[in-house]
Design goal:
Blueprint: E1 7-15, H1 20-27, H2 32-40, E2 43-51, E3 56-63, H3 68-77, H4 79-88, E4 92-93, E5 110-111, H5 126-129
Antiparallel strand pairs: 1-3, 1-4, 1-5, 2-3
């Protein structure tokens, strides 16, 4: 269940096909320092998915803090995170023109627009709004 101040983030990037096995191997054993940086900066419920037919990586996470930009900068300033990015960025190709890596001015990952969400609550509103 989402908390009212939770911000959901979905992002995508291309995974170089020749790097898929290594990328997955690295993610089976993420360094504790990386996970701690995520926790410290209010990032929870993080998942990373791979869609091989299009070489897509899709990341989803929730941000539960109160200053998203500040926490994202602090995450990017973290030494462990920077080491992780140096390891993984070379396995990826950004969809953003001019992007040169994580933590730079032009975002490395591309934000994906949310078009629908269902959290399991009442759907009574649908009776009126779903008249075809």
């Amino acid at each position: 269940m989402s908390v009212s101040h939770t911000k959901r983030i979905c992002q995508t990037i291309k995974l170089k096909p020749e790097c898929a096995d290594e990328y997955k191997k690295r993610h089976r054993n993420v360094c504790p320092g990386i996970l701690n940086a995520l926790r410290r900066h209010h990032i929870v419920d993080y998942s990373n998915n791979h869609y091989p037919p299009l070489d897509f990586l899709i990341a989803n996470f929730k941000y539960t803090g109160s200053d998203f930009d500040k926490d994202m900068k602090a995450t990017g300033d973290d030494e462990e995170t920077q080491r992780w990015w140096r390891l993984t960025d070379g396995m990826q190709e950004s969809f953003n023109d001019g992007a040169s890596g994580s933590g730079k001015e032009i975002p490395w990952w591309t934000d994906v627009e949310e078009v629908f969400r269902f959290e399991g609550g009442s759907s009574a509103w649908c009776v009126e709004s779903c008249r075809w």
